[in-house]
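Researcher: First entry.
Model:
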Amino acid sequence: MTESLVLVLAVLFMLAGLLGIFIPMIPGIPLILGVIVAYGWYEGFEVINVTYIAMMGGITLLSVLVDYLSTTLGAKYSGSSRAGVWGAFIGTFAGLFILPPLGLLIGPWIGAMLGEYLSANDLNKAVKAGFGTVVGLFSGMFFNLLLGLIMVVTFLMRVI
């Protein structure tokens, strides 16, 4: 393959990784890291060296931590229980399939509300939990988007 074609394929897979930040079934940031490592292997680890890969690995670990903490802290801040968090998680997947792309916003909110309501039988607490979980989820997505863009831009700066 020509170098240009390999670079185009790498960028396309990285764009898929950026989409994966919003679509739960695509491993977003880890996919971007995988592309960086694969491109480094392709070019002999001269431009994409071990130090750069280690830095991108650190960003990937940070993104996983952000994914976990943003939803959990959003739920905890709003007083949600474990049932509300699980409801948001299930609602995200259900919303993605039932009513894409709007379901990605509505699914976690309804899921968190249902989980919390079934657990606590308190509508006000359920609404608050749903709101907090969604705020946490989307603030985490936004931060991960920034991390993903940093990875893609630094990759392009190195290879172009």
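Researcher: Second entry.
Model:
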Amino acid sequence: MKNHLISLAIAIGFGLGSSAFAADGMTRDAYKAEKDKIETQAKADKKACDGMKDNAKDVCQAEAKAKEKIAKSELDAKNNPGPKADEKVTKMKAEGEYEVAKEKCEDQQGAAIATCKKDAKASYEKAKAAAKSAAAPKTDTKAKS
């Protein structure tokens, strides 16, 4: 009887442990399915740009690339949650906005292009710094432990 109770307790422990593990991340199949969905959407988004011309096409393609990178970083964060993953998502969003903003600057002329790109770069650097500082306190407390 005692051995049966111990076996039952061990089985329950393993059952709880594996379900807790699944809650932290995604299954390999779910991750792959979600990643495939993102890539399929990215191809469709890029294909939608084919009918456009000149800088509008470049902006569209930059938006499609940014959307894909952000979606993949969000998927990674969903699969392996934590402060570093959150920081990566925030940085990817800032990078995507920066790439799109740079392309949109190309619609301007003369000195306005340089000013536009300078402003876009400043916004990007500010967003990166904010992402890093938002994640820093969480990272530091783990390092001290």
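Model: Note on the second entry: The two ends are 43 Å apart (CA to CA).
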